[in-house]
Specification:
The protein contains 16 helices and 18 strands. It is of the alpha/beta class and 453 residues long. The protein has a seven-stranded parallel beta sheet, with helices on both faces. The protein has a seven-stranded parallel beta sheet with strand order 10-11-9-12-13-8-14, with helices on both faces. Bound molecules: adenosine monophosphate.
Length: 453
Amino acid sequence: MTIFATLSPALQQAVASAGYAEPTPVQQQSLPDILAGHDLIALAPTGSGKTAAFGLGLLQRLQIERIATQALVLCPTRELADQVAKALRKLAAQMANVKISVYTGGVAIGPQQASLAHPAHIVVGTPGRLQELIDLGALKLDAVGMLVLDEADRMLDMGFGEAILAVIARLPKNRQSLMFSATWPDEVGAVAASCLRDPRRIDCRNEQSKPQIEHYFIEATEAQKLSALAAWLCERASSSAVVFCNTRKRVDEVAGELQSLGFAAAALHGDMEQRDRDETLVCFGQRSLSVLVASDVAARGLDVKELPCVINFDVPGDADSYLHRVGRTARAGETGLALSLVAPSDAQRTLGIIERHQIKPRWLKAGRPTQPIPRAAMRSLRIDAGRTEKLRPGDILGALTGEAGLPATAIGKIDVFATRCYVAIGEREADRAFKAMQAGKIKGKKRRVAWVR
Ligand code: AMP
């Protein structure tokens, strides 16, 4: 019997419809303690299934009839907060009337403040914005009995230490606190010591990420890196790859160079407008973009299923970041490829990383592209209407396959936002789909449509 069997029928159903046949190690090890109300420290990297571990715990322990914020989930970035909330909503899909809200920075605080007049059962957010909402008296904490610090190491890296402590200082003392972290630097230990009570501790680092990832390394001078990368992408990375660079400037340069070679590539970094960042992530998820060139911070919230390949254009500064980066591939039992381009000046550091993580390295020679540059399989169409007009994926699918007569196989992922949605369409059917969407109606109305990629 797995730990899933102890969950409520509604949660068991959600787990089944998510296709989770068995709990992951972090779920199997942490859920008994979480359900019993203990504080917990879980060393678990991204991809280990940690979100469902705490999500199932929170949802099982929630008192739905009580309309008050009972659980607070702190995340390092807006993207991760959105994803956590999305995952929680999915798990709560069979439970009636669970409200889960996200509050993060970078957008106006007024509407967030107003929405808190109707409190959510679970609030997910970034520490800075939650602190502001608490200070304004908008976010009420007196009923909070559960706290989750997700990716605690990254939150501290990003300078959220003070904000986290300020939020925690305002929480009721009688609560359950869960801390998830991929690594265990001293600062994380210090926060754990001051905020958790007699925590149980589990360590799932070794059970994850190592066996399923093949780690490749190529020695390349700065001048060789781009062609070595292009060659690898042509030969190995069939659909999607994330390429990490150490600085924003490098991100822009490498993305630009890949574009001029003909790759469906784009940059993702913190200087970009939020809307552009969102759109880039959507296109990558929809496979209209095949290469995402990213900085560490910007890629935090990235959760693309079946990401087959992660590339370090620059070797990261330390061994933990290496694990964070390559942990984005080979999630939940898939296999993945990791490639690092090692400049001569990075050789020593790379050996340190290999030793620290006991990686079995496969060294390759820097090549040059000999095959044609692969095109993206899909294109992404934006429709200027969304959830606020009650548009659902089914409406868009219906419009495309019904009136427009496209085969369902030509339509990929559909992402619905508040005022926009995006649909992936197979390259070959793109023109037909566009004309049909321009001419026809969706949910009874004409909509503005435009290609994003
Ligand atoms: P996380 O570590 O929370 O970012 O989760 C990584 C991925 O694993 C997500 O795409 C989850 O949907 C998936 N996942 C979580 N739990 C399970 C499970 N028990 N079986 C299979 N996949 C899972």
